[in-house]
């Protein structure tokens, strides 16, 4: 994808594209990790859960790479206005994506602990919640990469749907525990 506004220094455009590609790759890994974590929890598959935990390092490594690239861009290119906001946003987005990867890892770790006991009643809303969350992350990444303001606003508005699903799941689990 070509940048929306081309710079006089073409290597800056290439560096931005590399940065956006790293963010996209991080998002792809994190969303697939979350899918896998939910799957291993439902299937009670501890070996697959161990793979999810082991794969967390890939996201961590990409976050470090994004951080280094952002620092390099800031130091060497000294971006202004929109470019500065986009570069800074990439840093914040990578941190959020890394946290998603950590959540997936935590789900996988907890599932291994739960697998040591007898099966508990499944939270039926969990797969739907994860599906909605992953769809929002994927759409947010598309909006960022393509600079689609309308899609970004749609993602923000759809976040309320995720909140409702979370509240419903939380209530379901509270009822189960009582």
Span between termini = 52 Å
- Count helical runs: 5
The helix/strand series, from N terminus to C terminus, equals HHHHH
- Overall strand count: 0
- CATH class group of the largest domain: Mainly Alpha
* Uncertain runs: none
Average pLDDT over all residues: 89
Largest sheet: none
Radius of gyration: 19 Å
What is the CATH superfamily of the largest domain? Phosphate transport system protein phou homolog 2, domain 2
Approximate helicity band: over 70%
Secondary structural class? mainly alpha
* The number of domains: 2
Classify the beta-strand content into a percent band. under 5%
**What would CATH call the architecture of the largest domain?**
Up-down Bundle
Shape annotation:
elongated
Give the oligomeric state.
Answer: single chain
CATH topology heading of the largest domain? Methane Monooxygenase Hydroxylase, Chain G, domain 1
Q: In words, what does this structure look like?
A:
The protein has two domains: 113 residues, Phosphate transport system protein phou homolog 2, domain 2 (Methane Monooxygenase Hydroxylase, Chain G, domain 1), CATH 1.20.58; 58 residues. 84% of the residues lie in helices and 0% in strands. It is built from five helices and no strands. The longest helix has 34 residues. The chain is elongated and about 60 Å long. The protein starts with 9 loop residues before the first helix and ends with a helix.
